[in-house]
């Protein structure tokens, strides 16, 4: 996720690295120190849980953890070069999907984890839909092949809403698309922009994808994400999504200012009460608990069985790591009930928790929505995953749509061409 939960232009850099690596790079020497990179905030659910995991790891193994704080952007922009050098860590958090973990796996930069999965039984702890993003074939396409990463949390996208603002304006919480639009119109009539949005980064792309998912089925998602069939960017799913975004901008549900806003702007706008609704990921949950004074709650997008979401970002082990066994031991600790409960009770979505250990009411709500999606086979991944550059290209198309330089047909034509142009870099290596 922030830009945190997207498969972005890192793939462009990684392609260059791949051309330099004809085979798996050499391994560093072990020094009884686990070098760890991740980009979770210290007060986030994962940050809290992983700090405790570090304590347990050092107590039990006698080894030392050398944690190097790296931002998402630092890892996004430089991981391919770092993993192909002597600076490679032993373990890092990395974004999942074809254009990121899949791409680096196909280039020999990540260590296959099949033996460790068998030894620790990780495949038995992860639901199939969560594990989809852990496995990649020889072309870097997710869902089959060797294991290259292990998530210990899940994530998904939903509506957050300001309960106090809904009550102040006498607006009911929507349970259908018609009721959602009625609620947004009521806010707009009162001079309040209903949706916190950003088009310079996510989350507008996630909302666009959700609108397509409302018209889609699993077959369409498989085609879009894993290239099982051509995707028609003039078909009903994408046409409905793009037209609805345009209609919501025209109606004042989305501000035209969103073209210049980042995800942080949208999130803080919701926190401070500028906007009554925010459609974005579960990774915001802990922050809203900590920073939001108003009463707030959540609901899944009405009228759709699917939503953007997946297993969380992955623990991956670089092929050049010097202490791979230590990396595997640390991964195992993060899947223990104690660590999973810390994730769950601090606003995260654990993937292997004992439900009885989740005592926080807000966390129970978050996990209930996630489990609802799992029961529906509703995790549909993210819109930018299919190609290394589609994150930026989709944002550019949506910016044009919001500022009026592209009409819906022109946007669909533009992003459709971008999507097609990017596929060979991922699917035909």
From TrEMBL:
Family stated for the protein in its record: Belongs to the bacterial solute-binding protein 1 family.
Top-level taxon of origin: Bacteria
Keywords (A to Z) from UniProt: Transport
InterPro entries, per database record: Bact_solute-bd_prot1, SBP
Name the UniProt record assigns to this protein: Sugar ABC transporter substrate-binding protein
Repressor as UniProt keyword: no
A Pfam family reported for this protein in Swiss-Prot or TrEMBL: SBP_bac_8
